[in-house]
Every structure is written in C-alpha cells, then in structure tokens.
Amino acid sequence: MTRFAFSIHATSGKARTGTIAMQRGTIRTPAFMPVGTAATVKAMKPESVRATGADIILGNTYHLMLRPGAERVARLGGLHRFMNWDRPILTDSGGYQVMSLSSLRKITEDGVTFASHLDGSRHLLSPERSMEIQRLLGSDIVMAFDECPRADQPRDAIAKSMAMSMRWAQRSRHAFDAGGDHAAAAALFGIQQGALDEGLRRESADALSAIGFDGYAIGGLAVGEGQEAMFATLDFAPDQLPASAPRYLMGVGKPDDLVGAVERGVDMFDCVLPTRSGRNGQAFTWHGPLNLRNARFAEDTAPLDDRCGCPACGHYSRAYLHHLTKSKEMLGAMLLTEHNLWFYQQLMAAMRDAIAEDRFATFARDFRRDYLAP
C-alpha cells in the first residue's frame, strides 16, 4: 500500500490539479478539508460529510488532547474508529490554538506551557508531545509543531519566532520518525512561517526543504491581515516551496480566497467558515453569500442555489430555511451546514475540472464576476 504519493496531473497557469495517494484513500487536489475540531464536523454525520465529496477531514490536536484525551482515543482504537471516518485525517499541531485560546501561556525553547481553556489545568505542548498526541490519535497527515506570530509584530520578533519554529520543525521530524508503525504509514508536513515578509518566508522554506517533509504548509496567514495582503504573500510564498510536494494554506477561507489561492499554486485548504456560517444562518452560493435571517427570504420559494445538488437545495425553500433560522431550530443549522460543505466541494471539483482543461483563468474571472457581483 502507498504511504504517501503526490502526483500533479495538469496545470493551468500556476494552478495545479492532482492526487495524493495514501493507505486510507486518495485525496483529489485542490482539496478542501472540512474541520472536525473535536472529532466531529459540527452538525454533520461522517457519512454525510463524505457524501459532499470530501476526501479528507481535519482534527484538532489541542482540543482532542484536552477532551477526551489522546490516550483515551488511542485506547478506543484511534480517531478514525472513534468518529467512524475511514478516510484520511489531517491533524494540526495544536500550536495555533495554544497561542489563540490560552491567555496564560509561556513560550520557551522547550515548547509552550499553557492553561486549558476548559478547566485551567496546566500542560506543556512541545514538538515531541505534539507528535506523540498525533500518533496516539492515528493521524494520516501530521503537522509539525510551530508558533504562529501576529503579522503586526516587529520584523525582528517575527524572525526570532520563525527561527524557533524551524528548530521545532527539526525536532518534530525526529520525533515523528521515531514513531514506529505510525511513522511508516503516515506523512509529516512542515509549516512555513515569516508573516508577510518575503525574505523570512524564503529563509523558512529553505530550512524546511533542508529537513525534508512530505508536504509543506503556508502558516501565519488568514489571521487578520486581509485578503490583499494575503494574496500579495501568496504571490511568492508557494513558489518558495518544493514544487513536487503539496502546498497547504492553513485556515483559509472564503470561496473567493480559495480561488485566488489556487490561482497562485496552493493545493490544500481547511477552514471552519462553511460550518460556522451554516450554524449562523449564512449560505454560500455561486452568486455570493446569503443571510437567511434576512426578511426578504420569508416568502422566497426558490432553492438556496439552483446550481447546487445538495439535499437542502433539492428539498427545501429559502422561505423554510429562513423560518428555521429565525426560529433557531436545529434543523436550520444542519441543512445550511450541509449545503455549505456541498458548495465548497462543488467549487473544488469545478476548479479541478478547469485546471484539467487548461481554462482556469477564465473560470476564475467568471467566478469572481458572479460571486462578487454587487
């Protein structure tokens, strides 16, 4: 069985389409990974997530280490069995959540000591412990442990943080490789840092390439810098990473973010936006997002999107979804989440087709015309 093999099947400009072959299944790229933070994609059954077209989902190391605990998940047969998902799972390293969710934390060369946001208990998350947790979970794609600094910090602070993340990347590599059977079956991705600075990004990419990883993530974006600054960074950051490996933009994003990032050579994405928006009454469509709380939908008998083949669009009107949303009925969140995940996967499939047919520039232009229309 193949441990990890990335193949590029076609290109259109910088956009690429291909496959990642792994033991638990093939991942079609560009790929969007629904986020299953706490061993569940919120408001969705695993089989429903698969029905949207998702080849892989993401689990969260920080949340799972705190509840129910990585050791408990291991005793119960691993994350795949625990949540009834038999295809690949990528787990993040936990570093971003430690930085963003814990107000009481201390960063040293060893790692990050922090207080749980659940009960205040103290924990140390280091490269070695992050690799151990991801091994206990049984992750297929493991992320190296890193620090994600804010982009508005001084350059010296960003450079210092990036350098430490590269040392942590080397320690992550060693700890992952010591993982026995898990290391023989899983893949490890390094994470490029450097905020918006081209020189620091280059230095980070060179350090990661020297260590050697199965794939490379672009970290430190989608953290408040805005789309223009993100795209300006993506104009150079993906090209700094090895072309023969998948490039993963972490935590992105809105549908137009995805199109712009694929246009710049990115292969993989994850984001909570489609599920979080669904729980809050927002639906994504080919003609832009809709706020189902809006009174204009109260008697609208049309489907959410006449181009969508999801169950919500096939059986329910905007008026009914408006009613469910306004009434705070659980079914409203479920149907809108399902629709949003279908839409995201249909968008990824449309991009893969456009790249395969070498018409991505036209696709991107037409998408933006319709999606961003006033």
List the helices and strands and how they pair.
Elements: E1 5-12, E2 15-22, E3 25-29, E4 31-36, H1 46-51, E5 57-59, H2 61-66, H3 70-75, H4 79-83, E6 89-91, H5 95-101, E7 105-107, E8 112-115, E9 122-125, H6 127-137, E10 141-143, H7 155-177, H8 181-185, E11 187-192, H9 198-211, E12 215-218, H10 227-234, H11 237-240, E13 247-249, H12 255-263, E14 268-271, H13 273-279, E15 282-283, E16 290-291, H14 311-315, H15 318-326, H16 330-356, H17 360-371
Parallel strand pairs: 4-5, 4-14, 5-6, 6-10, 10-11, 11-12, 12-13, 13-14
Antiparallel strand pairs: 1-2, 2-3, 7-8, 8-9, 15-16
Helix pairs in contact: 6-7, 7-9, 12-17, 13-16, 15-16
Structural write-up:
This protein has 374 residues and is an alpha/beta fold. The protein folds into two domains: 5-270, Queuine tRNA-ribosyltransferase-like (TIM Barrel), CATH 3.20.20; 272-374, no CATH class. The protein is built from 17 helices and 16 strands. The strands form four sheets. The chain has an eight-stranded parallel barrel, surrounded by five helices. The protein has a three-stranded antiparallel β-sheet with strand order 1-2-3. The longest helix has 27 residues, at 330-356. It is globular and about 60 Å long.
Helix content: 40-55%
CATH topology annotation of the largest domain:
TIM Barrel
Uncertain residue ranges = none
The largest pleated sheet is described as: 8 strands, parallel, barrel
Overall CATH architecture of the largest domain = Alpha-Beta Barrel
Can you say what the CATH homologous superfamily of the largest domain is? Queuine tRNA-ribosyltransferase-like
Number of beta strands: 16
Structural class: alpha/beta
Q: What kind of oligomer do you see?
A: single chain
Strand order of the largest sheet: 4-5-6-10-11-12-13-14
**Average pLDDT rating:** 96
- Rg from Cα: 20 Å
Shape: globular
Q: How far is it from the N-terminal to the C-terminal residue, by CA?
A: 50 Å
Beta-strand share of residues:
15-25%
Number of helices: 17
Structurally, the number of domains stands at 2
Q: Which CATH class of the largest domain is shown? A: Alpha Beta
